[in-house]
Write a structure and sequence with these properties.
This protein has about 675 residues and is an alpha/beta fold. Helices cover about 20% and strands about 30% of the residues. It contains eleven helices and 33 strands. The chain has a nine-stranded mixed beta sheet with strand order 31-30-33-28-27-26-1-29-32, with helices on one face. It has an eight-stranded parallel beta sheet with strand order 2-14-17-18-19-20-21-22. Strands 3, 6, 7, 9, 10 and 12 form a six-stranded antiparallel beta sheet that branches. The radius of gyration is 29 Å and the shape is globular. About 0% of the residues have low confidence. It binds alpha-L-arabinofuranose.
Length: about 675
């Protein structure tokens, strides 16, 4: 009897202890005296590619599609317009053209002028026009027979005229005609008419319309022709680096279609238009009107990087076309011109204004060097073909420019490219043997993978190349599925993964989400970080995750210990936490993702900080459902909210909201 009483007592004790343990309050212990590693200023950056009409029809503010009549179908984007009483014929011609690099132009042959005969441009899924805003129109025109006159009109989707300008005495030589027009109303789907108003011939080329605020400058800095609201979205991210021009666009479907930076600088009239490789890549989003005018070219990319305070990171073709498409290879004995392109690019960016390529930069308006520090050799390349080409590039570049950091490709996401894991292993092994400085890894996976892979780099080989996570994005349905959503679930999964990147900042030096932009009316690939239409733009929850990380980077990783967290199934955690020290500004920064549907009330213990100021802040991105997302009509449904967090000491309680990313900023005294 006595024994069984003792037994019951012991048993109850054990149960009580277990219950206390199960209910113990989660603890986050951060030790600021144990700084683990430095965080690179380039840790969080951006990846730009002209995909989803992100360049032409997006960031590049030109409103006229096929302005130089160089699309495969020269009339694409244009249609004949005959006003009352008019008659005539239009044709695409290339004799005595205005610019041999883009030889085609439009001839308007007027047999009866009536109220105007000519063409209408549909813009990029319409032309976005805003009331009271000024638009800069320009055209090269000539009249081969006798003086001609013409008018331009901006017409709203309901037929109202929003702006008009008239030109007369068009002469026989190609001449640029320009004017500024103020819009009388707003319309997202306006059109542009160009109508001859006399009998005779009118030849036109480079028909162009820009919002004046974009064409002239951004914040007083000359970035020609970039859409101001989209640039602002990039500037707000305060990115550490700016990767351009892609992406698969670097490689092209075949080598002719590859990105050749030299064709994208200098006079825009001479920048040869080519088909965009995303034009016909996906049957689900076939976009036959997708071309690259290169109005947004390498000079503009460098300027933009400088303007938004990001390190420029160009990626160069390495003699290999996209291995998902033709996989065409430049023979090794013809690689010289590709390597020369890389060397010349460095001179263009950094060389003195007196050097051959530096002088081209200076002529365009930037005599000072751009101070480029890194260059990517190829985008998603694999196989021995890559290694043998990579070696040639490294040798030539390092001989001349030993300080330029070179980024090596390690194929595409191992899960989606042919023989992926084995190819990645092969590349990693070979690149290690070659002492590669930085290798570029890509991840397009489901949100669960990102949650389970927050520790992806924890046990990674440290001796050797640093890592650049050069493209990633959680795909809610499947890789590049048209049904993927930029929802909170994906954004939080990426945030959990980024917490892992931050923890491994000694190894992972840079990272960026991809793709950057999606034109809501003309995309091919979803999800994307920033969506826009002709007049509006919004950041996805994923965008705000990137912004919260970038604006709260910190410069040193702090040690974090997590005790008594609620359990989750699989390899997932309920709460993902990292911490960093911003020494310059004097803050301890805590980032935490709560992926559960419940508030997690935790004790936060900050050790080794010295005295803390009580004026902490909490910035929280959350929403009711993981499926919540932003949209053009509701751009801030999922939006970070900042609030004061008064604390009375170095240990405090904090309730991490359900489905949230939280950044706590605790000022040091
Ligand atoms: O980001 C979209 C595409 O995904 C990139 O162009 C390519 O590098 C990757 O396969």
């Amino acid at each position: 009897m006595k024994n069984s009483k003792i037994y019951i007592w012991i048993l109850s004790g054990i149960i009580l202890a277990l219950t206390i343990q199960a209910c113990a309050k989660p603890r986050i212990i951060i030790d600021a005296s144990k700084t683990k590693t430095l965080i690179s200023p380039t840790m969080w950056g951006i990846f730009f590619e002209d995909i989803n009409f992100g360049g032409d029809g997006g960031l590049y503010a030109e409103l006229v599609k096929n302005r130089s009549f160089e699309f495969t179908d020269g009339m694409m984007g244009w249609s004949k317009t005959t006003k009352r009483g008019a008659r005539g014929v239009i044709s695409i011609r290339d004799t005595n053209s205005f610019e041999p690099a883009n030889p085609h132009y439009l001839r308007i042959e007027v047999r009866g002028a009536g109220e105007g005969f000519g063409v209408t441009n549909e813009g990029f899924r319409g032309i976005g026009i805003q009331k009271g805003k000024k638009y800069w129109f320009s055209v090269y025109a000539r009249s081969p027979i006798e003086p001609m006159s013409f008018k331009v009109e901006v017409i709203a989707s309901d037929g109202r005229k929003l702006a008009e300008a008239r030109f007369s005495d068009v002469s026989g030589d190609w001449t640029k005609y320009t004017c500024s027009m103020e819009a009388m109303d707003t319309d997202a789907k306006a059109k542009l008419n160009l109508l001859a108003t006399r009998k005779g011939l009118l030849d036109v080329d480079m028909v162009s319309l820009f919002p004046e605020d974009s064409a002239l400058s951004f914040k007083g800095y000359p970035v020609p022709g970039l859409r101001k609201d989209l640039v602002q979205m990039l500037a707000d991210l305060r990115p550490g680096f700016f990767r351009f021009p892609g992406g698969c666009i670097v490689e092209g479907r075949d080598l002719d279609n590859r990105y050749q930076w030299k064709n994208t600088i200098g006079d825009i009239n001479r920048r040869k238009t080519i088909i965009c490789r995303w034009n016909n890549e996906f049957d689900h989003r076939y976009t036959p009107d997708y071309f690259q005018s290169f109005g947004l070219g390498f000079y503009e990319y460098f300027l933009l990087a400088e303007q938004i305070g990001a390190e420029p990171m160009p990626i160069i073709n390495c003699g290999m076309a996209c291995q998902f498409n033709t996989a065409q290879l430049a023979p090794m004995d013809e690689l010289g011109s590709y390597v020369q392109d890389a060397l010349d690019l460095i001179e263009f960016a950094n060389g003195p204004a007196t050097s051959e390529w530096g002088s081209k930069r200076a002529e365009m308006g930037h005599p000072e060097p751009f101070n480029m520090k890194m260059l990517g050799i190829g985008n998603e390349q694999w196989g021995p073909q890559y290694i043998e080409r990579y070696k040639v590039f490294v040798k030539a570049i390092k001989e001349k420019y030993p300080d330029i950091k070179l980024i090596a490709a390690t194929g595409s996401d191992p899960e989606i490219f042919p023989n992926g894991p084995a190819e990645v292993k092969y590349l990693q092994t070979e690149l290690r043997k070659l002492n590669a400085e930085i290798i570029d890894e890509h991840f397009y996976r489901g949100p669960d993978w990102f949650l389970k892979s927050a520790d992806h780099y924890d046990n990674y080989e440290r001796n050797g190349p640093k890592i650049f996570v050069g493209e990633y994005g959680a795909q809610s349905v499947g890789v590049a599925s048209p049904d993927n959503r930029n929802n909170l679930h994906c954004a939080l999964a990426e945030a959990a993964f980024m917490i892992g990147l931050e923890r491994n900042a000694d190894l992972v030096r840079m990272s960026c989400y991809a793709p950057l932009f999606g034109n809501a009316n003309a995309w091919q690939w979803t999800p994307d970080l920033i969506w826009f239409d002709n007049l509006r733009v919004y950041g996805t929850p994923n965008y705000y995750v990137q912004r919260m990380f970038s604006l709260n980077r910190g410069d040193k990783v702090l040690s974090v210990q997590l005790n008594d967290l609620p359990e989750m199934e699989g390899q997932k955690k309920s709460l993902y936490v990292s911490s960093s020290l911003d020494e310059k500004e004097g803050y301890v920064i805590v980032k935490a993702v709560n992926i559960t549907a419940e508030t997690i009330n935790a004790t936060v213990e900050l050790q080794g900080t010295g005295e803390l100021s009580p004026n902490a802040k909490a910035i929280v991105l959350s929403s009711d459902k993981l499926t919540d997302e932003n949209s053009l009509d509701n751009p801030k449904k999922v939006y970070p909210i900042e609030s004061n967090l008064p604390i009375s000491g170095s240990t405090f309680n904090y309730g991490f909201k359900p489905y949230s990313l939280t950044v706590l900023r605790v000022p040091l005294k």
